[in-house]
Amino acid sequence: MKLTINKISSIALILMFAITLTNCNATKNANNKQKGAVIGATGGAILGAIIGNNVGKGGNGELGAVIGGVLGGGAGVLIGNKMDKQAKKIETEIPGAVVERVDDGIVVTFDENSGVYFDTAKYNVNEASKTALHKLVNVFREYPDTNILVVGHTDSVGSDQNNMTLSKNRAYAVTNYITGQGINIGRLTTNWFGEEQPTNDNTTAEGRAKNRRVNIAILPNEKMINDAKTQSDKN
Known about the structure:
Number of domains: 1
Structural class: alpha/beta
Number of helices: 7
Low-confidence stretches: 4-43, 55-70
Radius of gyration: 17 Å
Helix content: 25-40%
CATH class: Alpha Beta
Strand content: 15-25%
C-alpha cells in the first residue's frame, strides 16, 4: 500500500453537510503536519479525492463534508499530527487499501484489489471484506474523535438507475457493518454516486475494477478541533 499526500487543487465548492469540519488547503512540498498549520480555503480537495474530478455532475443528497472553515497555527499542527498517526495505522493494518492524507482528513479507497469488494451485482459484505473492515473499525475505536463518510461507486456496466441503487446499497452495507461493530452511528454519513464519478477508464476491465469502489473519508470532529484549539492556546 502507498500512503500519499494528495495534491488536488481546491475546488470552488461549499456544500452543507451534517459533519462539522474545518480544513486546510494542501500545499506543495509540505508534509502533513506543516499542511495543518497553513491557512487554507474550502475542503474541495477532500471532496475531489472521494468523488474524482467530476464535481457537480450529479450525486445523491447533500454530500458536502467540507464547509470552508480555516484551522491554522498550532491547532492545525496538532490535528495534522493525529491524522498522520491514524493514516499510518490504517496503512499498516490494511495492506492493499489506498490511504491518502488530504488536508485535515484521511481518504481510504477500497476497490476489488484492495480489501473491500463485492461480487458482481451484489452488495452484501463478504467474508474477505469483513476482515478488512474489522481492522478499520479497530482504528476507529482507537481514534474516536472523528467523523466518517462512506461513499459508494460503480462502473458503467448496466443501467444508470441500477448502478445508482447498487452503489447506495453497497455504501450502506459498509456503513451498517461499521455501526454493527459498535461504532456510534452519529459519526457516520453515507452517500453514493452510481457510475457518475469514475476515476478510471470504464472501457477497460482494469479501469472498471477501480471504479467499483467504496471511499471512506475520516474527518476531525468538533471535539478534536476544540481540543486542539484549547491545547494550542495553552502553549
